[in-house]
Amino acid sequence: MKKKNVESGGLKEPMPSVMREAAAVYGAPTEISVRAAKDQLSALLERAAQGEDIVITSDGRPKAMIVRYRPVIVGAPARSRAALRATMQMGPDSTAAIRAERDSRY
To answer: Mean pLDDT score of the chain, rounded to an integer?
Structure first.
């Protein structure tokens, strides 16, 4: 059975403090075991809401990540081509101009 790091609440701390600070600057995610995550889910959700990325591990391997929720912004629904064409004004037939351009070989 693996030892649980009681002081950090189950959080992994494999690095010295200087390296942890450098990792925090570059946005390295916090790792936590599944068992510790079960006990601290509300606190982890609050930390994720603040922008912290939290990796949940099982047997020392990453399995999932808790991140801040970012709503998807959806624009206006797409219109069909027929509806788009109906809004466009059509000019005179361009067949003669295209044929003349093609026959002149550019």
So the answer is: 78
